[in-house]
Amino acid sequence: MSNRLLRNLLLDCRAAFRRHYKQFEDDPLREKIDAAIKELDKKKDEDELPQPETRTAQQVAYAWQIAVRTLKLTHPEMYDKMAVRVRQMLDAQVLHDPASEIIELERSLQNTLAAQQGTANDLSQVYGALAEAMPLSGKDAIGSEAERALRRIERLQQAAASGVGLPKPSAPIDDPLGLTNSREGLTPVLLGRRGLTAGERAWCIAEAMVTSDRNNAELKQMADAELVKLIFG
Fold it and tell me: How far apart (Å, rounded) are the C-alpha atoms in residues 117 and 130?
């Protein structure tokens, strides 16, 4: 009999004694069995599983195999429960390499962020088209982009229902003081549908010198759309 089989037999005997002999822990026989098992653990047996050279998943699996093999002898009921759970996991195919799962999650996150950015760009274009088709003024121009978009859609529905058509867009007013310059009025510039007038550009440069770290020379070199974007974002 090999050392490995003898050791397993001693483990079985010790487990049986513990289940059926309540005074086994105080019996001198327990110490003799423990000493024999420890002695066998020190000896190398030719039929033992080879240990991996590096600490990888294979080594972890090897350590678990030894631990579970001992558990089968000392706590058979717990071993049976674990065996059922392992079979269930294998049948459900839920075991994957953690590194591969992380890479897949990162790829999924990147795709989601790209899709969100694309949706945001599309939504910005829709907001700009609505602003150009149905400009707002006064209290109607107050609120978030979504709120203003809803107001514009309502105005468009009313215009379609009444048959009066869309309001004609007002021509940009060359106002050096910037009294008429706003996000609403400069949105077509931001979308590249028209350029800035001389007054609008002067106002944008003055605003950008206050709200950004650019100097006058740098701002004068910027394109109209870039200048508006620097101010309103």
Answer: 20
**149 neighbors 130 (Cβ within 8 angstroms):** yes
Kindly report, residue by residue over 160-205, the tens digit of the pLDDT: 787 766 665 555 444 444 445 677 778 888 777 778 888 888 888 8
**Segment 145-174 mean pLDDT:** 72
What is the SS3 assignment for the chain? CCHHHHHHHHHHHHHHHHHHCCCHHHCHHHHHHHHHHHHHHHCCCCCCCCCCCCCCHHHHHHHHHHHHHHHHHHCHHHHHHHHHHHHHHHHHCCCCCHHHHHHHHHHHHHHHHHHHHHHHHHHHHHHHHHHHHCCCCHHHHCCCHHHHHHHHHHHHHHHHHHCCCCCCCCCCCCCCCCCCCCHHHHHHHHCCCCCCCHHHHHHHHHHHHHHCCCCHHHHHCCCHHHHHHHHHC
Tens digits of residue pLDDT in 80-100: 888 888 777 777 655 555 566
C-alpha Rg value of the chain to the nearest Å: 39
Report residue 36's pLDDT band, with 50, 70 and 90 as the boundaries. confident
Q: Which tokens sit at 41?
A: 């653990």
pLDDT at 51 over 80: no
